[in-house]
Structures are given as structure tokens and as C-alpha cells.
Design goal:
Length: 220
């Protein structure tokens, strides 16, 4: 009880945690057999903090052995940052828009043509994904197709994540690190991931949330 009642309740299906699911019942006799949904008691994340994450990754590039010189009017130093941008300043500050591996090179180029005359240095800069909360699923989904969501790789700097809750925006909820869901109607939805996290500094438990807007279609 209350999932199992004195009525004819049958055909139960639950998620992997047994926290939510569906079952068939005839408890409203005049409508015949119906499908009911049951789920976990989800805390209110209305006042939860929305963490702010880095969207720019900035570095200052310089080469100590390269000396700015005026002994030639035909050559100039040029940084290539591996993301489609270049700079002719020997000491140059550059911001990348996202994490990834970038091949950084410093060349001497001909001023008149822009062609590389010689390569001074070459290396790969790896920018790691910063700790953050995120909803990992496609932006566009199809009704009736099961999706799997996970908070396993979520992290917050200075906090230890505790309990995780999901609000799928269609009146359905779940909890846990790994969950599954099926949208049964097309439309625009907001998936919310809410977490309880323990501060490394104060040991206080705080609430955080992140949202993702998706579109559910009849078919692609």
C-alpha cells in the first residue's frame, strides 16, 4: 500500500532502483483498467543555488628564448593557438571557449605573405573539463524512446555530492545516480537536476540545481 491496494493491481514496472514506476489497476471501476505512475518524494529545489561555471579559459603565452628584434623587416613572430586564431604579439593573452586539446605553435612568418618561415616551438595544451553539474542527454528526443541520465560525472569544486534528484518537466520524478525516462507527449520540457552537496569548508549540506531545455518530437 498505496501501490498495492484491495483492487486488481497488476503489471508493475519499476526503475533500476525501485524508486518509481508504473502499474495497471482497475481501482476506478467505471474507467476499466488504467495505468498509474508512482515515484519518490522529491525535495523542493525552488531556492537551490544555480552554480556558475567557467565559459572562458584564458592563458598568457610567451617564449623566453624568443627575443623581439628589429634586425629584419621581413619576418615576424606569430602564435597559432590551434582554435583558428592567431596573434603576432610575442607575449599574448588568449582565451579558449571550451575545454579540449589545442596544438600551440610559435612561428616566424614572412610579413608580406604570412607564410611560415620557421617553427620556434610546438606543443599540445590540454584544457580539462572543470567540475560542474550537467544534464547529459540530447537536445532533441523522440516520444516513446527511453533515455538514460546519469549524475556520475557531476562535481562541484569544494563540495562532496550527496543525493541526486531528477524532475523531467512532465510531472514525473526520480532519484539516484543513474535513471531512465520516457517522454510520452511531444513538446518543450525543462529537465532539472537537483543535488544535495556537503561543503568541504563548513560541512553544511546545501542544495544546487541545473536545468536543461529539450524538445520532444513525434519522430525525427
Amino acid at each position: 500500500y498505496p501501490v498495492n491496494s484491495s483492487a486488481d493491481d497488476f503489471g508493475i514496472w519499476t526503475d533500476s532502483l525501485g524508486a518509481s514506476g508504473y502499474f495497471s489497476t482497475n481501482r476506478i471501476t467505471k474507467s476499466g483498467d488504467d495505468i498509474y505512475y508512482f515515484g519518490v518524494n522529491i525535495p523542493d529545489f525552488e531556492q537551490a543555488k544555480i552554480p556558475v561555471f567557467k565559459t572562458k579559459f584564458c592563458y598568457t603565452f610567451y617564449e623566453e628564448t624568443a627575443i623581439e628584434t628589429n634586425d629584419t623587416n621581413s619576418l615576424a613572430y606569430e602564435w597559432n593557438f590551434g582554435d583558428g586564431t592567431k596573434s603576432k604579439q610575442l607575449t599574448s593573452r588568449h582565451c579558449f571557449n571550451k575545454p579540449g586539446n589545442y596544438t600551440i605553435s610559435l612561428n616566424t612568418v614572412e610579413k608580406s605573405t604570412g607564410e611560415v618561415f620557421s617553427n620556434e616551438l610546438n606543443y599540445v595544451l590540454t584544457i580539462e573539463e572543470p567540475p560542474k553539474l550537467f544534464v547529459n542527454c540530447p537536445d532533441t528526443l523522440v516520444i516513446g524512446k527511453e533515455i538514460v541520465l546519469s549524475s556520475e560525472k557531476c562535481a562541484l569544486k569544494g563540495y562532496a555530492l550527496n543525493k541526486t534528484y531528477w524532475n523531467f518537466g512532465d510531472g514525473k520524478y526520480n532519484s539516484g545516480t543513474h535513471v531512465k525516462h520516457i517522454f510520452n507527449k511531444p513538446g518543450k520540457y525543462v529537465i532539472q537536476l537537483g543535488v544535495f552537496a556537503k561543503s568541504d569548508e563548513t560541512n553544511n549540506i546545501e542544495q544546487f540545481k541545473i536545468e536543461k531545455h529539450i524538445i520532444v518530437k513525434d519522430n525525427f
